[in-house]
Amino acid sequence: MVRNQLIGQRNYAQQRITRNQLISPLKRIIGDVDLWGRMDAFLNISDANGYSPNTISSYRNLLTHFIRFMNSQGVTYPDEVMEQHIVAYIIHRKRTCNGVSVGTYFRHVRAWFNWMRDPHRGIIQTSPFDGLKTPPTPKTVIKPLTGDQVQRIMSFCTDYFRGARDKALVMLIYDSGLRRSELSNIKLEDIDLKRGAIKIMGKGARERYIAIGDVTKKVLLSYLYRRTDNLPWLFVTQKVENRAQMSPGNISQIISDLMRCAGITGVKLGPHTLRHSFATASIRNGANLFHVQSLLGHSTLDMTRRYAATVDSEEAVRQHHKFSPADRLKR
Q1: Strand 207-211 vs strand 191-192: parallel, antiparallel, or unpaired?
Q2: Per the confidence metrics, is the pTM higher than 0.85?
Q3: N or C terminus of the chain: which is more exposed, having fewer CB within 10 Å?
Q4: CA 307 to CA 292: how far, in whole Å?
């Protein structure tokens, strides 16, 4: 029954597509009435509202994938998207994505449809998501790096410019939990070594300060002493003749390569694992959850509590020998 409905709608949509030949450039800017045009309008307004480039890029990628799937089902316009199409899309995503990614796709597309349903816009009257629950996201235990693993990673950083810079990258992430985009955008004027503080512009254009310890200060200075350029950014590329600001992609590649060289396995290779490691190590060392939340730039305590749960779980395993019921059975 549902399959026949989808086939019928696809055939009808194909007829509408042939009648609407090319969409003008102007309509691409202000938004046409099909799914593609509504996406363009949504992204343009998000940009005007101050959403970060990373957020807009994420929405564009996820919504593009969704619209292509809808078009393959013969769906062209927002009011043609029904609950069964969303269900089919989620099933399609589950074939190639983990639970976290499926939940991300679901929330992004739902936010877009909620935007279209806003009474001030009147694009759609109801949302196909109204009767659907968000797919459950698996709450896996976050596996951080050990101190020995961090030391091993840094042992692969040489004493030359690149090695000093890469060591500074590793230490700064591990000591502060910064995101790769935040690292990329740090300027030299943002650093106050006397206070041991760095000004950061985080997600959602939220400014905050992070702290660094004495060891990280020394590593940063060792790197900065090797700088001979006048670029304003803290982290720059290696070649002197065309030195430039390091991109988030550059940072990810460098950290991943170092972790691979160090033989790190069982965790995702990249800077975000170092960010996780900062959070769990800080909590294990007695840091207040609210302080960790502030340093990480989290808007809520939800993610910070996950780090705390990881530390509690590890401690429970270590302490188990003290209270093991089986060990205390009378034999």
Answers
A1: unpaired
A2: no
A3: C
A4: 10
Task: List beta partners, residue 198.
Answer: 191, 210
CA atoms of 95 and 66, how far apart (whole Å): 15
The answer to whether residue 275 is catalytic is yes
CA distance 82 to 75: 9
* Residue 272 designated active-site: yes
47 within 8 A of 16, measured Cβ to Cβ: no
Query: What does pLDDT average to in each consecutive run of 10 residues of the chain (331 residues)?
Result: 49 43 51 84 88 86 94 92 93 85 90 91 89 78 83 88 93 90 92 90 77 91 91 89 89 94 89 87 79 73 68 64 65 51
Among 151, 111, 138, CA closest to 127: 111
Query: One of 203, 217, 226, 243 is an active-site residue; which one?
Result: 203
Catalytic residue among 117, 167, 179, 276, which?
Answer: 179
Place of tokens 């302490």: 319
